[in-house]
Design a protein that fits this description.
By secondary structure, the protein is of the alpha+beta class. It has 4 helices and 6 strands; from the N terminus they run αβααβββββα. The chain starts with a helix and ends with a helix.
Length: about 120
Amino acid sequence: MSETPFRLSVLDIIQSSHSAVSVLDIEKNLGEHNRVTLYRTIKTFLEQGIIHAISIAGDELRYAMCEDNCGKDSHVHNHLHLQCLTCESVYCVDLPATSFVNNSHHQVDSFEVHARGTCEACLN
């Protein structure tokens, strides 16, 4: 994958955000751009394991950075996605693997959980 100024700009927007971002959030920060190029860039980042998509029922798709253990062949996430009911931001919150995930009947290699509540910023 080649590093173009456009791709670096999109990556910087996602990396510098304190929460997961939507395409609209990215577009607001990009200035003038080609939407097709933006969607192709997002697709490439997803395929390369650079970002992951977050889909919460009733909400638009959002994107956040992957961890180092993600790659072209797999996404490995052990966290929950917290949607703040106050500010509507979506955060990736790390969780350790626990016994409720792995048991004698299943093998779980990664997991994602969606939760609704109040983020740290809105609690303060």
